[in-house]
Amino acid sequence: MPAARTIPFDCPAPGPAALPGAGLPWLDAMRDEGRRLSAGGLPSTRMEAWKYTNLAPLAELDFQPSAPGAEVQPAGLDPGALDALEGPAVVFVNGWLSPEHSRLDGLPNGLRVRGLAQGLTDDPVGVEALIGGAEALNGDLMAAFNAAFAADGCIVETEPGAAVQEPVVLRFVAAPGSAPLAYHPRVIVRLGADSSLTLIERHEGPAGVPTWSNPVVDIEVGEEARFSHIKLQAEGESAYHTALTKAALAGGARYESHLLALGARLARHEIHIRFDGEGADCQLRGGYMARGSQHIDNTTVIDHAVPHCESREVYKGVLDDTARGVFQGKIVVRQDAQKTDGHQLNRTLLLSPKAEIDTKPELEIYADDVKCSHGATAGEPEADQLFYLRSRGLDLRTARKLIVQGFMGELLEEVGHEPTRAVLADRVAAWIDGDQVS
C-alpha cells in the first residue's frame, strides 16, 4: 500500500471552552474547522510540499498544552540580545503574552499593539474583521492546528500615514517544565496606506525538554506602505518550529523579509506572498546555519497575481556535520500579470561531506511579457579562496571561518535597521566561533 499522506497525531490542547474567546460563533466555527482538518494528522512526505521534511519525530512526542503564568527571565536566556533596542516590546512565554516582561506604555502616535486574547475580550467584532473565518485556512494542515488551538498572540496595526521609527519587538520564549509543551501563537499585522513599520520577531528557548512552536503570522501591507519584517529563530536543540507567514501587498507596497534561522532540532519557515496591487515590491532574504543533526526547511511561494510587480529572493545557508537544509522556492506568474520581474537564488556552503541540501527552485509562468529567473548552487568552500587566505599565513580553520563570515555577511548587509543587524551579526559570529566550523 502507498504511504499515507498524513501522519497520525493527536495534538493535546485545552478544551474549546478553555480557550480565550470561547462562545463567539465565528471563532468557534473557525476552531471547529481547524480541529476537523488537524484530526487527520500532520502532513507526511507523501505531500509534495513536505517531501523533504519528515514530521514523524514530532508525532512521537507527548506534548502538553501550555498554560499562562510560567516563570521565566527572558533576558537570562540570551543576555543583551534585543533588550537594548528601544521601542515597544511584546514578550510571550510558552505562547502566552507576559505583561510583566512586555513594554507597551507610551506607544507612538499611529501605532496600536495589543494581545490577541485580550482583544477577543475587549473587541471581538474588531478581531473578527482582522482574522476572517474558517475559509481562510484553505486546507492548510499546519494553519489548521494554529486555528484550532491558538490561545494568544498579538495584533499590530498602523494608521494611514504613520511612520513608526522604533521597531516593534515580538519575543517568543519557551520555558518548558518537565513535559514537552506545544503552543500556537497567532500574529496579525495590518499596515495602513503610506505607513511604515519594522517588526522584529524572535523565537528562543533553552535546550532540554522538547517544545513545539507553530506560529502563524498574517500580514496586510496597505497601499504605498513599507514593512520590514526581521525574524531570528534560535530555539533550543530539542525544539520543533513550524511557522507560516502570509503577506498580502496592496498597490505600491513594499515588504522586506529578513530571516536568520539557527536553532531547533527541526524548523520549517514557510512564507506565502500575494501581490494584490500593481507596483508592489517584495524582498525575501533568508539565512540558515545548522550543525549536528538539525533540519531547517525554507519554503516560499510568491504569487504575482497582478501586473507590474517585482520580487527578489535570496536564501543562503551553511551546513555542517549531518545537518540538512531544504529550500523550496516557487514563483507563480498569473496570466494577466504582465511586466512581472521575479528572481530567486539559493546558495549553500557544505562544511561536511555528510551535510545535505535539497533545493527546488520553481517558476510557474502563465504570462509572456515577464523577466524571471532562478538558480541554486551548493558545495564546499572554494579552493581558490582557501588558497588565497592560506597563502597570507592563515591556518585552514581560520580561513574557513572567514569564508563563512563573508558568505553570510553579504546577506546581513541588507538588514536596514542597524542595531538589529548588529545583533544578527553577533549570532552569526557566535555560530562560526563554535566547534561546528573546523
Give the integer mean of the pLDDT values.
89
In which range does the helix fraction lie? 10-25%
Find the count of extended strands (DSSP E, 2+ residues). 24
Taking the sheet with the most strands, its summary is:
12 strands, mixed
Low-confidence stretches: 74-82
Total number of helices:
9
Estimate the strand proportion: 35-45%
| Quaternary structure classification | single chain
Radius of gyration: 21 Å
The geometry reads as: globular
Please report the distance between the alpha carbons of the first and last residues: 45 Å
Number of domains: 2
Helix and strand content put the structural class at alpha/beta
Plain-language structure description:
By secondary structure, this protein is α/β, with parallel strands linked by helices. The protein folds into two domains: about 5-275, no CATH class; about 380-438, no CATH class. About 20% of the residues lie in helices and about 40% in strands. It is built from nine helices and 24 strands. Strands 3, 6, 7, 9, 10, 12, 13, 15, 17, 19, 21 and 23 form a twelve-stranded mixed β-sheet that branches. A ten-stranded mixed β-sheet has the order 5-4-8-11-14-16-18-20-22-24, with helices on one face. Strands 1-2 form a two-stranded antiparallel sheet. α4 (about 115-120) crosses α5 (about 125-130) and α7 (about 385-390) crosses α8 (about 395-410). Mean pLDDT is about 90; it is low at about 75-80.
